């Protein structure tokens, strides 16, 4: 039976990420996919992570779970640095930390039925023995009911189902071990628009019922505003802004965040559109030089933007930004 995780102290972070880095070796040098990312996440809350394709948001989510082994840094889950755990201990920790993948078809084994897919983590983690067939089936049916899958589909294969039902299987599989933290890696981007709302509402309902903590990775800004308590904006491997969801949309500070928000379509043709057009070329994430990686495209770039990296600094209550325009905590320096 699925139980909730609401017996937590809301004032103590469930996840602390400190100076997380993930580099990949390429023929041209080290690709800095995630570079010095730090944040805290509290129980029952949702951190939305946004940014254009290739910014490192998915790599960050997988590095937190050690699906990609981090290059350096710390990931503290309930106060314990999981990067120091042996493979056996990390396997046990998987009960508490799960992921929902972007493509529900690619992430499911086409040779396994719904029953086998959802039951697999229960057997791997030895929650049940293989001969406890009735208990396993009861748990699988309970999970299917939780995510809105009809009992009659229990012996179906992924290719027999639409995208929405496939993603519900992925969600049920992620919930099977009663996790406390789930990384949602663009869980609706591969789905039809008509199905996206159903899955998003399902995730919200499950989070409320089970007390889950979520990292929600997406490129859809309207989605992230609807779901998140706090939003982090990433650009070429680094976090450039982080604050409460409403604050980000009402008072964006970083020039990249402003450009990103200006690209959101407005469903009213009579309203004026003030989209910020970015010019200049992208900086290379391979062996990047010190300095702001957005500087080459920034409308407010200064010579001082190069030569050193900029850390997230609090410039307002719970509003952090990495930009020279706010080095002295003055949020009124930017003009134009």
Describe, in plain words, how this protein is organized in 3D.
It is globular and about 70 Å long. Helix 3 (114-124) crosses helix 4, helix 4 (133-146) crosses helix 5 and helix 5 (163-175) runs parallel beside helix 6. It is 27% helix and 21% strand. The strands form 2 sheets. The chain has an 8-stranded mixed sheet, with helices on both faces. A 4-stranded antiparallel sheet has the order 2-1-4-5. A hairpin with a 2-residue loop joins strand 1 (15-26) and strand 2. The model is unreliable at 332-336 (pLDDT under 50). By secondary structure, it is an alpha/beta fold. The termini are far apart. It has 9 helices and 12 strands.
Please render the helix and strand layout as text.
Elements: E1 15-26, E2 29-41, E3 46-50, H1 57-64, E4 72-77, E5 80-81, H2 87-93, E6 97-100, H3 114-124, H4 133-146, H5 163-175, E7 181-185, H6 193-210, E8 213-217, H7 221-227, E9 230-235, E10 238-244, H8 245-250, H9 255-262, E11 313-316, E12 319-321
Parallel strand pairs: 3-8, 3-9, 6-7, 7-8
Antiparallel strand pairs: 1-2, 1-4, 4-5, 9-10, 10-12, 11-12
Helix pairs in contact: 3-4, 3-5, 4-5, 5-6
